[in-house]
Amino acid sequence: MNALLNARKRYDYLVVGAGFAGSILAERLASQHGAAVLLVDRRPHIGGNAYDEVNSDGILYHKYGPHIFHTNSEQVVEYLSQFTEWRPYEHRVLAQARGQLVPIPINRTTLNMLFDAKLETDEDAAAFLASRAEPVEDIRTSEDVVVNAVGRELYELFFRGYTRKQWDLDPSELDKQVTSRIPTRTNTDDRYFTDSFQAMPRDGYTAMFKRMLAHPLIEVRTGVDFRDVRDEVEADHIIYTGPIDEYFDFRFGKLPYRSLKFDHRTIEQEQFQPVGTVNYPSPDVPYTRISEYKHLTGQQAPRTTITYEYPSAEGDPYYPIPREENQQLFKRYEALADETEGVTFVGRLATYRYYNMDQIVGQALATFRRMHEKREPAKAAAVAVA
Ligand SMILES: Cc1cc2nc3c(=O)[nH]c(=O)nc-3n(C[C@H](O)[C@H](O)[C@H](O)COP(=O)(O)OP(=O)(O)OC[C@H]3O[C@@H](n4cnc5c(N)ncnc54)[C@H](O)[C@@H]3O)c2cc1C
User: Fold this and answer.
1) Which of 27, 46, 49 maximizes ligand 1 atoms within 8 Å of its Cβ, making it the mutation to test the pocket?
2) Burial bucket for residue 313 (CB in 10 Å: 0-12, 13-18, 19+)
């Protein structure tokens, strides 16, 4: 029998999942409430999807695909900066289209390269896009959003094939919010994100998580599934950051996810591609993108590690599939979660939504603030971040 279970130690909190959501709550509860926390993760490591490690070729890479940190929240930066220094980094993405590598999101440079359009100003580019746009009266799907904004040719070139590969659904079958988030620019800004803070943890994500969890009141057990300890561990409260449907034994059915297969490779050359990520929207190429970590990390080395991403129906749950019926199913689980005493559901898998890392940091800090307010209403604001 597991030594952990023999011990029958009591904890104030059992936290399930050592990604951003679980690790931040463990850290806050231990450091601010003096709570004894047991943090378990079924993977053999901390950090959740943001986990990075040095591979056998000596290159720092991200096991679950490239994670680029960007945020507009000062509070999120202030909180994480307790556990890491930062390396300024602005992500750039190129897409392979018609034999060229062009900036994505589409900007004036993209249009000039593809159409030899000689657009000199924002107004020129706006007029060019307007002349190609094909107005759709009732915008319902992802296809409608893009065709309405940039017309069918650019839609076919950049969106249709990519979306079909990513989701195994045609954009005409996907909710409009999937492509509503994708901007089109009339200037020449070729940064992928425009957030006020864009930087990578200087020593990597895993190092940041290690510092976050290095508190004497936090006990970390990796390679331990909640299922194996839920009836054994004595804890006053559970923080659950795993899949919400799994918590309730899939009683209404499975929440659908899209997964990815990562093919990590090390190449014996200093640099593989000119930017961090190159997208391959063509339906003839089986992967969606290739990322090269040295751009992100600034590491100097004679070789380089890259990752091919192949979308897949099978595997770890990465992207909730954005369709109305799936949201309805989630709502049924959410109602059960709301009725469940003694468990707080937090994080991307428990809320069945795609969130960026900074949003999960914000969600975890807000969850802690609410827990703190219940305990000590007057002092709540003071300790939420510090
Ligand atoms: C391919 C990809 C690229 C991404 N790129 C970016 C990016 O560039 N920038 C960005 O801001 N965000 C990015 N994200 C999003 C980012 O990964 C998430 O915002 C973040 O990981 C969410 O943290 P979390 O703690 O909610 O979940 P997770 O990191 O998934 O952590 C949940 C943890 O719970 C564990 N767990 C689940 N069930 C159990 C159980 N029963 N028992 C024990 N442990 C359990 C899991 O093993 C996991 O480690 C990306 C996501 C993907 C999939």
Assistant:
1) 49
2) exposed
Task: List own/partner pairs for 192-197 with CB under 8 A and 24 or more apart.
Answer: 192/68, 192/90, 192/91, 192/92, 192/93, 192/104, 192/105, 192/277, 193/68, 193/70, 193/90, 193/91, 195/70, 195/71, 195/72, 196/71, 196/72, 197/70, 197/71, 197/72, 197/73, 197/74, 197/77
- CA of 52 relative to ligand 1 center, distance in Å: 12
- Per-residue pLDDT 10s for the chain (386 aa) are 444 544 567 999 999 999 999 999 999 999 999 999 999 999 999 999 999 999 999 999 999 999 999 999 999 999 999 999 999 999 999 999 999 999 999 999 999 999 999 999 999 999 999 999 999 999 888 899 999 989 999 999 999 999 899 999 888 888 887 776 668 999 999 999 999 999 999 999 999 999 999 999 999 999 999 999 998 999 999 999 999 999 999 999 999 999 999 999 999 999 999 999 999 999 999 999 999 999 999 999 999 999 999 999 999 999 998 888 999 999 999 999 999 999 999 999 999 999 999 999 999 999 999 999 988 765 555 555 55
Structure-token pair, residue 217:
């009141």
Q: Containing H/E element for 172?
A: none
- CA 10 and chain centroid, separation: 33
Instruction: State if residue 276 touches ligand 1 by the CB under 6 angstroms criterion.
Output: no
Q: Is 354 exposed, middle or buried (0-12, 13-18, 19+ CB in 10 A)?
A: middle
Q: Whose CA is nearest to atom 4 of ligand 1?
A: 67
Torsion of CA 158, 163, 164, 169, to 10 degrees: -140
Q: Which two tokens stand for residue 19?
A: 């990604």
CA atoms within 13 A on the CB side of 370: 8
The protein residue with its alpha carbon nearest to ligand 1, atom 15, reads: 356
Closest CA to 372 of 76, 33, 78: 33
Q: What angle do CA 240, 328, 348 make, to 5 degrees?
A: 30
| Residue 5 CA: distances (Å) to CA of 2, 146, 221 | 5, 54, 12
CA distances from 200 to 17, 59, 365 (A): 22, 16, 20
H or E segment and range at residue 229: helix 226-229
